[in-house]
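U., I forgot to send this yesterday:
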Amino acid sequence: MDNSIVVALISSAVTILGVILANSKSLAVINNEIKHLTDEVKKHNNFAQRMPVLEVHLEELTKRVEALERKNNGKD
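Result:
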């Protein structure tokens, strides 16, 4: 076999190996970012579910404060 063919085959093999290793590292980083973003979405969804409950409690507290203020203003 000609030396130039052997060199070309070895260069191709090394290049393919380098591409495979680089892609696997990129894939690992992408998977890590997806996991991080998934966790953030879960936190956001939990917050979005709790917010209406807080709004109801705030409305109830506002009514109680207004009732106490009316009661207090009546005594003055």
